[in-house]
């Protein structure tokens, strides 16, 4: 921003949903972070490319009075000595282009924070919470469901799933790149009626038809690719499965594999491969020895499916990950949950990738009614395993950890509390009462 552009902004605009003036107030990182979320979301909602927070200007008269605030010298506190800018930018999700500019106008210092939202594809959070401007005040977005709905709708036109992975193809070329036979089987179509197959592919947003040519969407390539090398822009987003010798990531990797086909085409084999690498116990109850994985397959299946369908495609350089250790398994995906992890069992399902969720639902890989986590909790209880641990890692990823068998005396207080909490949640959604018998068990 130039000095001329700043003066024009001050003179021609009053405080609004995308602009706020401050004098010497507002020095706290968390408060500034709330403004970033509120102003940024309002800019998205009103189709503005940026929002502005300006220090050194009176909010009504717009008189330039200057400010003592300097974002580059400010710390979050004397105790932590963390730079204010680092704190704000670390807790904003998704990562934004935030410009902290300083000017000298009329011999007075002006500070401008420019919040660039041109490439944002989901609501902006600060420290896990979303805000919106109501007039010139910041309010929690969750308190205004209609604005939240409109905000999500504004992202539809630029969704990652609907961008093109490959264009201007004949249907024969599409069949070479995508496993259409798998699709026909899963969608229970007649392979003798190609026109019907094409209609359903277009309706499912796997293909976009232009005359007698076809464009493959990212959705189609990511789910149905015969070989992900044909789609290099998507290859880095396939799931990676690593097995370690021991309980530390620093241990030697016994196995390390990345997905080579579309996630729908390879899903069943992916689960079989993970189950084969899990630690196991020996079962002689039927006479001969049977190796039984310590983690229930239904729990692994649901968590892997969730990691795939709920990943945040706007985060680059990251992918869904399964890490297998001697005593635990960690399943992670890029992006933080859209709802509080503690409400996974009773909250209505919300997906950031609706088309992906719908398509995987039609293949019976995920369930749109949101019962997956219920199955995980129930399966872990039946197997006498500790409750799952769900952790949002800053603004970048979500990690679900399953621990192997533990004696009650070996469980930490946190693990005991989590087991009680998830047991109570499971009973609640089943409209049953938690009681001493079920809790002791």
TrEMBL record:
Q: Which domain of life is it from?
A: Bacteria
Which stretches make up the Schlafen AlbA-2 domain?
15-141
Q: Which PANTHER family match?
A: GLPR-RELATED TRANSCRIPTIONAL REPRESSOR, SCHLAFEN ALBA-2 DOMAIN-CONTAINING PROTEIN
- This protein's name: Transcriptional regulator
């Amino acid at each position: 921003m130039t000095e001329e552009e700043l003066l024009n902004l001050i003179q021609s605009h009053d405080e609004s949903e995308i602009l706020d003036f401050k004098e010497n107030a507002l020095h706290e990182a968390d408060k500034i972070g709330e403004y970033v979320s509120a102003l940024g979301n309002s800019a998205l909602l009103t189709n503005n490319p940026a929002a502005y927070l300006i220090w050194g200007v009176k909010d009504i008269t717009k008189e330039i009075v200057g400010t003592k605030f300097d974002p580059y010298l400010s710390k979050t506190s004397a105790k932590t000595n963390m730079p204010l800018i680092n704190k704000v930018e670390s807790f904003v999700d998704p990562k934004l282009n935030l410009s902290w500019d300083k000017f000298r106008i009329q011999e007075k210092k002006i500070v401008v924070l420019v919040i660039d939202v041109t490439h944002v594809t989901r609501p902006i959070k600060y420290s896990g919470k979303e805000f919106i401007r109501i007039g010139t005040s910041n309010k929690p977005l969750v308190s205004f469901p209609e604005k939240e709905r409109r905000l999500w709708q504004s992202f539809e036109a630029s969704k990652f799933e609907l961008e093109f992975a490959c264009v201007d193809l004949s249907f024969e070329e599409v069949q070479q790149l995508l496993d259409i036979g798998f699709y026909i089987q899963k969608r229970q179509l007649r392979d003798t009626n190609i026109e019907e197959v094409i209609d359903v592919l277009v309706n499912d947003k796997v293909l976009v038809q232009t005359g007698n040519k076809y464009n493959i969407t990212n959705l189609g390539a990511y789910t149905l690719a015969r070989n992900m090398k044909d789609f290099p822009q998507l290859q880095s987003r396939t799931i990676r499965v690593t097995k370690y010798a021991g309980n530390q990531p620093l241990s030697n990797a016994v196995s390390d594999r990345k997905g080579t086909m579309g996630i729908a085409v390879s899903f069943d084999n992916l689960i079989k491969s993970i189950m084969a690498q899990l630690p196991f116990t020996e079962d002689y109850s039927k006479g001969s020895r049977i190796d039984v994985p310590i983690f229930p397959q239904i729990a692994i299946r649901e968590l892997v499916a969730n990691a795939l369908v709920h990943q945040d495609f706007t985060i680059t350089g990251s992918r869904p990950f399964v890490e297998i250790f001697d005593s635990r398994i960690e399943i992670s995906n890029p992006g933080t949950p859209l709802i509080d992890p503690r409400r996974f069992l009773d909250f209505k399902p919300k997906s950031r990738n609706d088309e992906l969720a719908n398509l995987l639902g039609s293949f019976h890989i995920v369930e749109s009614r949101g019962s997956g986590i219920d199955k995980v909790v129930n399966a872990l209880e039946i197997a006498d395993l500790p409750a799952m641990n769900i952790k949002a890692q800053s603004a970048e990823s979500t990690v679900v950890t399953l621990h192997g068998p533990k004696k009650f005396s070996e469980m930490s207080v946190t693990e005991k509390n989590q087991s009680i909490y998830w047991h109570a949640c499971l009973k609640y959604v089943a409209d049953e009462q938690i009681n001493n018998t079920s809790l002791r068990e």
